[in-house]
Amino acid sequence: MGVEVAGKQFVTVDLESIARRGCGGQVTSFGAIPEGPRVGVVGSRDPMPEQLAATRDIVAGLVQAGAIVVSGGARGIDEQAHRHTVELGGRTAVVLPAGLLGVDKRQAVLCRFVRTGGGIVMSREKPLSGHMNGSYRRRNAVLVRLIDALVVVCADLRSGTLMTANMARQQQIPVFVVPWRGTDFPSAGSNELLRLGCRLVSDRTGARTLVADLGHNATIDGAAQGWQRYATPKPRGRLPLVVPQGGDSRLVSAIDQALATTLDTGLSLEELVSCTGGTRSELAALLLRLCMDGQLQRASFGRYRRA
Fold first, then answer.
1. Is residue 243 packed enough to be buried (19+ CB in 10 Å), middle (13-18) or exposed (0-12)?
2. 266 and 301 in contact (C-beta within 8 Å)?
3. 280 & 148 share domain
């Protein structure tokens, strides 16, 4: 459905009609997302030059394989992925954390470049709204539901990139990670994802194979690629969380599953809201009771993890 705001023409689309997985609500966009395999490419806002080069190489493989490159329009890896896709004549979609007319100057320049190159720009936020509390999490949730696979070029332990990867894993979306050695690269989160058994991708050949293999569930163990320190760990024999008296068993089970598939750094209340579907108030009350029972602990930065 066409909508006009401040003299600009948008298309309003039900997310259910374009998402790969169930997702309510609507998005406004410049243009319609095309059919074809969709691969998300995400990473740090402050990458090293080598990581930007890796992004270009992987994007080249995705474009050659006919994939639509989806990212969040942030500076760093996201912007490099969008720009290089357009430069190669490929198809890209920008999922914004602000409204289409509420972006900052840098994002406005990027969006204009993408649209001029035939790409798509979309947002779940109201057209005139700016960056707000919670809008980045909503952007990440939309991005994850649009894609068939996710490539993490680089991620710190506390980052939106890692949040997106966790959301993808919750949705059983294949997550591919670029491995980095040494302490000079912002990649601690990437290496943890590899340790958990996420798949490896390092160049355009791997990216082409990724697209060709979409729909196959074979997991590549990091050790098999010579990254022994990132091999998939043996499952930890943890007992399920016990439902507190009067607690919601469904919600406790959802919390248990979310924490079982994430990193040892735990999940924030906002991430748990996204993963479980519970409200902030009911989750906060339930998490407090689980902590008082000694089943969970509230770690640094307000993140919850198994005790």
1. middle
2. no
3. no
